[in-house]
Amino acid sequence: MEEFLDKLPQMDLMRSEKMTLVQLIIPVESAHRSITYLGELGLLQFRDLNADKSPFQRTFANQVKRCGEMSRKLRFFKDQIDKAGLRCSPRHEIEPDIELGDLERQLADHEHEVLEMNSNSEKLRQTYNELLEFKIVLEKASGFLVSSNAHAIGDETELHESTYSNNGFIETASLLEQEMNPGPSNQSGLRFISGIINKDKLLRFERMLFRATRGNMLFNQTTSDEEIMDPSTSEMVEKVVFVVFFSGEQARTKILKICEAFGANCYPVPEDTTKQRQLTREVLSRLSDLEATLDAGTRHRNNALNSVGYSLTNWMTTVRREKAVYDTLNMLNFDVTKKCLVGEGWCPTFAKTQIHEVLQRATFDSNSQVGVIFHVMQAVESPPTYFRTNKLTNAFQEIIDAYGVARYQEANPAVYSVVTYPFLFAVMFGDWGHGLCLLLGALYLLARERKLSTQKLGSFMEMLFGGRYVILLMALFSVYCGLIYNEFFSVPFHIFGGSAYKCRDTTCSDAYTVGLVKYRDPYPFGVDPSWRGSRTELPYLNSLKMKMSILLGIAQMNLGLILSFFNARFFGSSLDIRYQFIPQMIFLNSLFGYLSLLIIIKWCTGSQADLYHVMIYMFLSPTEELGENELFWGQRPLQIMLLLLAFIAVPWMLFPKPFALRKIHMERFQGRTYGVLGTSEVDLDVEPDSARGGGHHEEEFNFSEIFVHQLIHSIEFVLGSVSNTASYLRLWALSLAHSELSTVFYEKVLLLAWGYENILIRLIGVAVFAFATAFILLMMETLSAFLHALRLHWVEFMGKFFNGDGYKFKPFSFALISDDDE
Membrane spanning segments where (predicted)? Predict the structure, then answer.
């Protein structure tokens, strides 16, 4: 057996890549180029040799700070370009590499130029807004003043310089002169203040004015016809023109302070119509000039931003890479001569030649007199886990890694999940009509794969696109299982020939009550369409799907136990094979493997035996005669033997392994101490509770902890064998639920609506059926089956062999740097 297993080819996809701990001694003059070339290769994960130092104490902290500052400037340019609404496509021609110092100077110059233009533009915009508000106030406030003056002419004419009160309106002559040249003679006169304020502040502003003047004022207001741009937010703001009539200097002071507090801008408006027209012409002239100046400034600013935008993407990539290089250099240490940098890291064994060639090229390109020293070190800690994946297997590997990263060189569940995961999903989702809908969605994602991979997608769409091959396989397996169940939106079809059953007479009047008769060979593939609508449909499908779920569950759990055997054999742990794998296999298959055998025999023989009765009385009365429940000769003694084996397997799992580990520990520390010191490092990678793992941290060996751990592990497996087998019945439950829901929507919605002659009712029925199919069966049911298949893999399957306490291989690679790693 050992010779046969040794001759088997290595399962490269099953285990992570072999990793090597290497040391680099790099001369200072070629350090930057060497790290850059290694980042382009992306196959070396550096260890941080300065973990005890803060980021500010590291050698290249200043360079990292400079790169961070340049990243800030580039983000500023990007925000300005987006704010201006410009679309700057990067240049396709290859630009020459730019030195970091030159790029830093260019960015500083561009930033100073853009900031200066923004400042000038903001000042001009502020002046423009003030003139625009002044023009609006002149246009709107003059109406109040003209109406007031017209009313005043009809009163006494001898009071030319006095003030009047007429019908609640407070009026005054030569208000502009009083505003601009206040004198003692005007202190008791009636005045007005005109201005403009944001519309959302108007109500509070008016209420505050009324309270401050105790009602001794008249407030007129009108809405502005034009919206004004807020220079700080670049949003258009709706404003209201107001005119406040009042009396007295004290009231004037209060009103001006309130205007200032509410951000209202006040503008003097002359009462003389001629002066108003003259002032309006001057304001319009200045507005025209400012508009031309603002347009010219905007064009100049856009040209400057365009010149930056053409190279922005390349500059951001350059800065991001430079920052990553200096961050990596900060993980290296100087040697005692301060002329070389020393680094350590993990790389796949197959990549050693490529890394060596890259380092030689970096030495040559940097004109260094001394080459980079690259040699392998003995590993003390466990290496990282690295699986080489492609577009198909990457999504399944991510599903497994979401539960836990595999331990170094541990069996990889993702290899088997590529098939088992979509298959178990399809068992719960089996309907080839719904499967075709999923297939169309997957094919759409695959057809637009090249375009979608370059776009920035939303979180939901990004998740769908990342799992496009998972959806494709789920759809294909759903079509396959749907053909087995013979369901197309719950409707059966005679795809593979005619039914094996027919009615007892030509009228088929007793087909549902008495049943059909079999007259030919069974239906060649899947469920016979005649079962649909028969009186035994539900019992038949229940029995079929429940037994099938148990068979699939026992098969997958046995696969998990077999993988635990290959794990133990790979790590050289004979104790795990003798005292864990063998008793677990015996216990699981003595009970539930035997149940699976009974199911298959019952299917093959057509026996009417009650399997519930057989399994219950196997424990309660193992010596009792089986009677009509006997499926084969010698069943009773076989059951007794299997029951005894199951009882023996429990202490077999519990007691031998802790005592064997204790014996190995005592031998090592009571006579063989000097003989095993040399091999203690070799056992660091293995499981802590395995035989080889006994050599790791022997000084912390605690027999009671190991025994309790083994006791918990044994109880968990015994109870888990029952609960996990029952957990696979979710395959039956969800498959039945999906089928019944689909039947309800088809019969009670679509067929019911189609029975009416009214076209409107038919259209409503079709719409409701389409909505229910899309959102309930294709979205909610898909998500439900997906999550249940996830649970079966994470707990029932992977729990038999998977430790999941490793850590990912994260190489220094420019390709892995995202936009967020600024």
Answer: 423-446, 467-485, 548-566, 586-603, 638-655, 759-780
